[in-house]
TrEMBL record, chain A:
Entry's Gene Ontology molecular function annotations: electron transfer activity; flavin adenine dinucleotide binding
Record-stated family: Belongs to the ETF alpha-subunit/FixB family.
GO BP field: fatty acid beta-oxidation using acyl-CoA dehydrogenase
Coiled coil as UniProt keyword: no
Pfam families assigned: ETF (PF01012), ETF_alpha (PF00766)
Keywords: Electron transport, FAD, Flavoprotein, Transport
PANTHER family listed in its UniProt record: ELECTRON TRANSFER FLAVOPROTEIN ALPHA, ELECTRON TRANSFER FLAVOPROTEIN SUBUNIT ALPHA, MITOCHONDRIAL
Cofactor(s), by name: FAD
Cofactor info, note text: Binds 1 FAD per dimer.
Name of the protein described by the UniProt record: Electron transfer flavoprotein subunit alpha
TrEMBL record, chain B:
Keyword Lyase: no
InterPro entries: ETF_a/b_N, ETF_b, ETF_beta_N, Rossmann-like_a/b/a_fold
Domain Electron transfer flavoprotein alpha/beta-subunit N-terminal positions: 21-210
Signal peptide residues on this chain, from the entry's feature table: none
Residue numbers spanned by region Disordered: 207-239
Organism name: Fodinibius halophilus
Name of protein: Electron transfer flavoprotein subunit beta/FixA family protein
Length: 324, 256
């Protein structure tokens, strides 16, 4: 019997849904293979999240609580994860694939001499380790991968698994943690454009994404109104983030965020493969573009060929009626 | 400042791809400098132009990858080291990080930089692995760099916003392609690149033990991702289209 441990990421005072997706899958794997599912919360207020995590059925929840975890910094997070691995001795250690995870996953694997697969879209246990699928070549190809050994790290794309609650009776184990200022060489000077109450794209049910076609003020107003009616997150193609029109944190694509909402509305986006790589796993894709040959129509479930300035106002009115 | 930029030759993701018996068949004429590494080279050149210093590129790869080294030299890098491999190995991120860590163990530098990931595999692991092996302060996913005395100031795109991080040198940083537009080599740059020094290093020249060349992960196959079928495309009066699609989303898809 081995331990399948899941890291529960906290950002802006909320548990990242992607972590709970990984925990749900890990608990199912544990049940099917007579392993133990455990979870770890590392945060300035880790204990606040214990009750929520319990619902997903880990048998043990480790907490590491220290004010240093108020903001993401790789050195303290790595130190905490190393301590947790010493304590829990996980066979598999799973993460939701957030920017914070990407910042430390390789370093943690190197530190622990562990095998690691990042950004997988699915994984299963084998006799020797795990096998996993990863999107590669701008998400045009799926690769099959195996990782073997007695310590394996894996990060999972958001939206890969459904949430699944389990038996809520977990032991809670607090792990002592302290870090001296001298151990942290880097200084976090400030955080710009903290997302605050904005909707996290990686977790959004609905996303309205704007491209070059919607770059002026009128276009932006329409995008904002559409998003507001649908309670949607707002994303952007690289054209708009590069031009400084939209915040870089909103970029969707191979280099930006990878999203998988129920509904993705691409407005004025042509559909370059780098953009498509970040949104092709959306359940329903709607594209609005005046160019009938735009590649976005090749992957859209519903395409509207037309000028977004003429299409969006009646579209927004219709949606308002439906939402009524 | 002395910059080492780790670069990699990768397939062009825009080129047509074939899969045969689970293996990717890549057009050897469509191998390019990894786009993220190109941004790392560009940023090092900009900082060198502002503050002086030297930019050296390091590439682990087969002989064929020399052309990628030439590209970085033509952009303006001063010199290069080529750590030669046969190209047939099934190295994973950890193996590359081990090779580079061994190479850097006796080197002096202010900054080691590289792309945040390879555009072919998108793994994004080797950078922070190298930072850990060399025990360097590091930052990933940089979208901007500035040099201060003894400090590299990194603007990092994080989950909650852009983090401004001061890293004391020597340090390591991995670069996003959102930080700049890599320059196209000029004719003069291309001519000059042919005279710039490229040091060849064989794996056997490095004091690296066999076990750190054994990958812990393997790619066992490839398949085309099931493509999304194009759905319905509507043209006509904007009001009608808007109403039709809104109704479909509500009644057929139930996503409103």
């Amino acid at each position: 019997m081995s331990t399948l441990l899941t890291h529960i990421a906290i950002s802006d005072g909320k548990i990242k849904r992607s972590s709970l997706e990984v925990l749900s899958h890990m608990r199912q794997l544990a049940e099917a293979n007579r392993h133990t599912a455990e979870a770890v919360i590392i945060d300035a207020e880790a204990s606040n999240y214990v009750d929520e995590v319990k619902k997903y059925g880990p048998s043990t929840i480790y907490t590491v609580e220290d004010p240093i975890f108020e903001n993401h910094m790789n050195t303290p997070l790595l130190k905490a994860l190393t301590k947790v691995m010493d304590e829990a001795e996980p066979y598999i250690f799973g993460f939701g694939s957030t920017e914070s995870t990407k910042d430390i996953l390789g370093a943690l694997a190197a530190n622990q001499d562990a095998a690691v697969l990042s950004d997988v879209s699915e994984f299963e246990l084998t006799d020797e380790g795990i096998e996993a699928k990863r999107p590669v070549m701008a998400a045009k190809i799926l690769s099959d991968n195996v990782a073997e050994g007695d310590r394996i790290l894996v990060s999972v794309r958001s939206g890969s698994y459904d949430l699944d609650e389990g038996d809520a009776d977990a032991d809670v184990v607090d792990i002592d943690f302290s870090i001296d200022d001298s151990e942290i060489q880097a200084t976090l000077r400030e955080i710009i454009g903290a997302s605050g109450d904005k909707i996290d794209l990686a977790e959004a049910e609905t996303i309205v994404a704007a491209g070059r076609g919607a770059k002026d003020e009128e276009g932006q107003d329409l995008i904002n109104e559409l998003a507001s009616v649908l309670n949607a997150g707002i994303g952007a193609s690289r054209a708009l983030t590069e031009a400084g029109i939209m915040d870089p944190s909103l970029q969707i694509g191979q280099t930006g965020k990878v999203v998988s909402p129920q509904l993705y509305i691409a407005v004025g986006i042509s559909g370059a493969i780098q953009h498509v790589a970040g949104m092709t796993n959306s359940k329903v894709i709607v594209a609005i573009n005046k160019d009938p040959d735009a590649p976005i129509f090749d992957i859209a479930d519903y395409g509207i060929v037309g000028d977004l300035y003429k299409v969006l106002p009646p579209f927004i009115e219709e949606l308002k009626k439906i939402k009524g | 400042m002395k910059f080492y930029v780790c670069i990699k030759q990768v397939p062009d993701v825009d080129a047509p791809i074939q899969i045969k018996d689970g293996k990717l068949i890549q057009d050897t004429d469509r191998m390019v400098l990894n786009a993220y590494d190109a941004s790392a080279v560009e940023e090092a050149l900009v900082l060198k132009e502002e503050h002086g210093g030297e930019v050296e590129v390091v590439l682990v790869g087969p002989d064929k990858a020399k052309e990628t080294i030439r590209k970085a030299l033509a952009m303006g890098a001063d010199k290069a080291t080529h750590i030669a491999t046969s190209g047939d190995e099934d190295y994973d991120s950890a193996t590359y990080a081990n090779i580079l860590a061994t190479f850097f163990s006796d080197k002096e530098y202010d900054v080691i930089s590289c792309g945040k990931q390879s555009q072919d595999t998108d793994a994004g692991l080797a950078g922070s692995m190298l930072g850990e092996h060399l025990d360097l302060p590091y930052a990933t996913n940089a979208v901007g760099l500035e040099a201060e005395e003894g400090t590299l100031v990194v603007k990092r795109q994080g989950d909650a916003g852009q983090e401004i991080i001061g890293l004391p040198t020597p340090c390591l940083v991995t670069c996003s392609n959102d930080m700049n537009e890599p320059r196209i080599p000029s004719l003069k740059g291309i001519m000059q690149s042919k005279r710039k020094p490229v040091e060849d290093v064989a794996l056997s020249d490095l004091d690296i033990d066999e076990s750190s060349l054994q990958p812990k992960t393997k790619v066992t196959g490839h398949m085309e991702k099931p493509e999304r079928e194009p759905g319905q495309k509507f043209e006509g009066e904007p009001e009608e289209l808007a109403q039709k699609v809104a109704t479909l989303l509500d009644e057929e898809e139930n996503v409103i």
